[in-house]
Specification:
Blueprint lengths: L1 H19 L4 E3 L2 E2 L26 H17 L2 H26 L13 H19 L13 H4 L27 E2 L4 E2 L32
Antiparallel strand pairs: 1-2, 3-4
Length: 218
């Protein structure tokens, strides 16, 4: 968070320096807004013809400032670095074209050589690159765990086992195999022994004798 703030401050300062540089003297007292942008890419080089505002060096500086603002809002290091490269690239290209047209470039204190506009553009481009380097960029948000992960879910039975074993089911009973009862193994119906006869019980005295029980009648 702190790196993003510091990087944004450096980037905004660089964008402000770059976008204000065309309104200052670049060479021999001539402002950067008077240099035609198309002359930097032509074989004739820089001439004394004046350019319109959005047809001059002001255009790449405005594009760089807009890219800087978007990059700061989105915390995009790529956009801020792109803005710095654009400003420095057009500044160096302008110096090459002016050097070809003038034959030499001088720095004089009386304003006849390089002016503050070139210095402002160069410093602005460097600050933009420094801001992009300092910024940490956007950080990916990690998904939040579900709420029941800490409190436990109603259907949660505990930690899952690390390995699984297939339980061996018991063999299914068949009619061919031996079957058991509480008293022992069950035999086939045809081979079961007959039921044993009930034990013999002796009848009470006098019930099994002839003539019946004795009576008192004559």
């Amino acid at each position: 968070m702190v790196r993003n703030v510091l990087g944004a401050i450096l980037a905004l300062l660089g964008a402000a320096a770059a976008v204000s540089s065309p309104f200052r003297a670049w060479y021999d007292g001539r402002h950067g807004r008077y240099y035609r942008l198309g002359e930097l890419f032509s074989g004739a080089g820089v001439t004394d013809a004046r350019a319109e505002l959005f047809g001059s060096l002001f255009l790449p500086c405005v594009v760089a400032a807009a890219a800087t603002l978007i990059g700061v809002v989105l915390r995009s290091r790529l956009l801020v670095a792109f803005a710095g490269v654009v400003v420095l690239a057009f500044t160096v290209l302008w110096m090459v074209r002016v050097g070809q047209a003038e034959g030499q470039m001088v720095v004089a204190g009386d304003g006849s050589g390089l002016g503050l506009g070139v210095a402002g553009a160069a410093v602005g481009g460097v600050l933009l690159l420094l801001g992009a380097a300092v910024m940490s960029g956007r950080q990916k948000r990690q998904p939040r765990p579900p709420e029941y992960a800490d409190q436990g879910h109603a259907g949660d039975t505990g930690p899952e086992p690390t390995h699984f074993t297939d339980p061996v089911p018991p063999p299914a009973p068949t009619l061919d195999g031996p079957q058991h009862t509480l008293e022992g193994p069950m035999q086939p119906y045809g081979e079961q022994p007959p039921y044993p006869d009930p034990p013999y019980e002796e009848p009470p005295y006098g019930e099994g004798q002839q003539g019946g029980p004795p009576t008192d009648k004559p």
